[in-house]
Design goal:
The protein is 60% helix and 8% strand. It is mainly alpha-helical. α4 packs across α9.
Length: 372
C-alpha cells in the first residue's frame, strides 16, 4: 500500500506499507526532493519494494484513485502481469457517498444540517445551551472520512431532535440576542421544520448501507476482499428497498455506485474472492447464476498461471467443480461454521486452496498507509 502527499513545509513524501492477515507493517518512506509524484516515480518506488518483499509474496498493490497511481498501475502490469493494482475501497466508497450527497434531494438537507451545526458551535451561548439540553452530548461526531462524519452528525441530530426542539423553544433562547439574528432565525426554522427532519431520515436510510460497507473496508479486524463485492450488491438492494422501489428515486443512486465501482471494486480479483467465499456461494443461489463473477475466476486463473495450461485445466475443470458442487470435505455441515474454512477443508483442492487463502486474506483499503 502506498500514499503520497506534500506536507506543510512543501516537502514531497511517499511511504509504503505491507499488509497481510497479520496486519499492516510500515516498510519505507521516501522524500522526493527533486521529483514530482509522477506515474513513473510511483511505479519505480513500488516496484523496488516488491523486489525487496519478494514478487512471489505480493498479490496486489492498493492505492487511492489518483490519475498518477492509475498510470503507475499500467506500468506495473507490463512488468509484473501477475501482480494486481487495485483502487482503495475506502476512497472509492467515500466518492460514492459524496456524489450521492450532491444530488439535489440530499444536498439541501446536508447543507441545512451543516449550517445548523456551524451556527451552534460558533457561539459560546448556543453551544452551552445545546450541551445543557443534550446533557453535555455533542452533535458533531468524527468519522473515518469527511462524509462519514457528515453521516454520523445527521444521525446524532436525529437522536437529539426533541432536545434541540426544546432548546429552540425555551425561554433562554427567546432571551438570547442571537435569536433575532439572520442565522439565529434560520437555525430556529431548520429545527422546527418537519421537512428538514423528514429529509434527515431519508438521507440516513440511503447512506446507511454504504456507510456500513465503508466501516467494514476501513476496519482492521477482518480482511475485506472476500466481502466487498457481495456487500456492495447487498447495499444496492437495501437502498432500493429504503426508497420503496421507486425507480426515479433510486436509479440516480445506483448509477453513481455502479460508475464509481467500475474497474475499481469489480475487478476479477474482487469477483473471484466473492465466488470463493462460501459465505456467499453456499448461502445465496444468485451467486451461482452470476455469470460475470464466475467468468472472473477464469480470467484470474489465466493471469496467475499464464500459459500454464495443464495447471489452469486442473484448477478450472477438476478442483473448482468440487468446491462449487460442495463435494468431499466441502460437504460437511460443520465446514460452513469454520473460521479458517479453506485451510481446514480445502485439502482436496490444493491449488484452489492456495489461491483462495491468498485472496481472501487481502485488504481492499490503503487507509492504513495514510499520513496519520
Amino acid at each position: 500500500m502506498t500514499d503520497a502527499w506534500t506536507d506543510r513545509t512543501r516537502r514531497s513524501i511517499m511511504n509504503l506499507c505491507v499488509n497481510s492477515k497479520l496486519g499492516t507493517v510500515f516498510l519505507s518512506s521516501k522524500e522526493c526532493l527533486n521529483e514530482a509524484h509522477t506515474s513513473e516515480n510511483i511505479f519505480e518506488y513500488v516496484d523496488k519494494c516488491i523486489e525487496e518483499v519478494g514478487p512471489e509474496n505480493v498479490v496486489q498493490v492498493v492505492t487511492d484513485n489518483a490519475s498518477n497511481n492509475m498510470g503507475a498501475s499500467k506500468l506495473l502490469k507490463v512488468k509484473r502481469p501477475t501482480v494486481f493494482w487495485i483502487s482503495c475501497a475506502t476512497h472509492t466508497i467515500n466518492l460514492m457517498l459524496e456524489a450521492i450527497g450532491g444530488l439535489p434531494r440530499y444536498k439541501k438537507t446536508i447543507d441545512e444540517a451543516k449550517k445548523l451545526t456551524v451556527f451552534i458551535y460558533s457561539h459560546h451561548k448556543t453551544l452551552a445551551l445545546m450541551r445543557k439540553y443534550t446533557k453535555k452530548r455533542n452533535i458533531v461526531r468524527p468519522g473515518v472520512t469527511s462524509f462519514a462524519s457528515a453521516f454520523l452528525t445527521l444521525q446524532s441530530l436525529l437522536d437529539k431532535k426533541s432536545q434541540l426542539r426544546q432548546m429552540f423553544s425555551s425561554e433562554e433562547w427567546v432571551k438570547c440576542k442571537l435569536a433575532n439574528k439572520v442565522k439565529g432565525r434560520a437555525a430556529y426554522a431548520t429545527v422546527t421544520s418537519p421537512a428538514f427532519w423528514s429529509g434527515v431520515t431519508t438521507c440516513l436510510k440511503v447512506f446507511a448501507p454504504l456507510v456500513k460497507v465503508l466501516r467494514m473496508v476501513d476496519a482492521y479486524w477482518k480482511p475485506s476482499m472476500g466481502f466487498i463485492y457481495g456487500e456492495l450488491k447487498r447495499a444496492k438492494k437495501e437502498i432500493i428497498n429504503s426508497l420503496n422501489n421507486n425507480k426515479n428515486a433510486y436509479e440516480p443512486i445506483i448509477d453513481i455506485i455502479s460508475k464509481k465501482s467500475s474497474n475499481r471494486l469489480d475487478t476479477c480479483l474482487h469477483m473471484t474472492a466473492y465466488i470463493l467465499n462460501p459465505y456467499y456461494f453456499y448461502n445465496n443461489p444468485e451467486v451461482r447464476d452470476d455469470l460475470e463473477a464466475n467468468d472472473a475466476v477464469l480470467d484470474l486463473i489465466g493471469v496467475l498461471f499464464h500459459k500454464d495450461y495443464p495447471l489452469q485445466t486442473q484448477i478450472l475443470s477438476v478442483e473448482l467443480p468440487i468446491y462449487k458442487r460442495k463435494q468431499e470435505k466441502f460437504a460437511r455441515p460443520i465446514a460452513l461454521k469454520a473460521s479458517n474454512w479453506w485451510e481446514t477443508y480445502g485439502h482436496s483442492t490444493p491449488n484452489l486452496k492456495k489461491i483462495a487463502m491468498r485472496i481472501l486474506s487481502l485488504t481492499t483499503s490503503s487507509s492504513g498507509c495514510e499520513r496519520n
